[in-house]
Amino acid sequence: MGRVIFLGTGDPLNAERAQSSLAVRLSGGETILFDASSGTILLGRLRDADIPIEEVRHLFVTHRHFDHAGGLAPLLISMATLPAASLTIYALPGTLKALRELLALTIPGVEDWLGDRLNWRELAPGKPILLENTEMTPFLVDHSVECVGYRVAQNGSVLVFSADTRPCRAVVEHSRGADLLIHEAYGTKDESEWAHAVGHSSAPDAGEVARATGVDRLVLTHFRESRFADPGELAAEAGAPSENLCLQPVIWTPSSSEWPGRFGK
After folding, report:
1. What digits encode the pLDDT tens for the residues 208-237?
2. CATH homologous superfamily of domain 4-252?
3. Which site from 15, 43, 108, 160 is most exposed, i.e. has the minimal number of CB atoms within 10 Å?
4. Which three-class secondary structure state does DSSP give residue 127?
5. What is the model's pTM?
6. Which sequence spans correspond to the domains of the chain?
7. Pairing of strands 4-8, 31-34
8. Is 193 left (phi over 0), alpha (psi -120 to 50) or beta?
9. What angle is formed at CA 84 by the lines to CA 81 and CA 85, rounded to 5 degrees?
């Protein structure tokens, strides 16, 4: 796997960070996004990461919550002005329906602006999608709405993105043999009961998955603001080194034994 770029790692109300979005480059120069953050901030993160909008050709959405899909509308409007831009959006059927209905209500006609440059593709849990040398396999997780995580395999390396989820067997099963597990850490051990009640996992939950599956590296994400959950405490409770906190935005290269440098602010 060439690079994994963390464009956003905050929870929906975190003003310190952008909201959830990951970028993975394909060998042919195209870019895959997993989730679209929460608004125009996505465009700034793409700029900071030196990812031209025209290179973003695939968007895999985990679920319809605004902190994961809110950047879709600004992205599409930007693409409409760029003749070379096109996008295929992948999600579960219910999620695709919700996204298209929201676009129709808030930006009527945006799909027509893009025409055949915009495509929608339904996902089925357990059925992989192959793009060049990269395979994405969605799997159902346990959130408050329809939601999938992703197992991504490229050039012999594997990453797993848990998305938003309570502790569930599916994340464990799909994380076995992975090089990188990107798992949410919505709170501390003392907040586990509350986190589970609202469809999320605590830092110790993330650590348990990593230890149970023997992943090479655990990276925490989906943080609340630091005044609610200190990142160092979350890392300690998960049993992860502090450098694995994913203090955005960062780039991770599986072939390197060291955490790479950060870009932007």
Report:
1. 999 999 998 888 898 888 888 887 788 888
2. Ribonuclease Z/Hydroxyacylglutathione hydrolase-like (3.60.15.10)
3. 15
4. coil
5. 0.90
6. 4-252
7. unpaired
8. alpha
9. 70
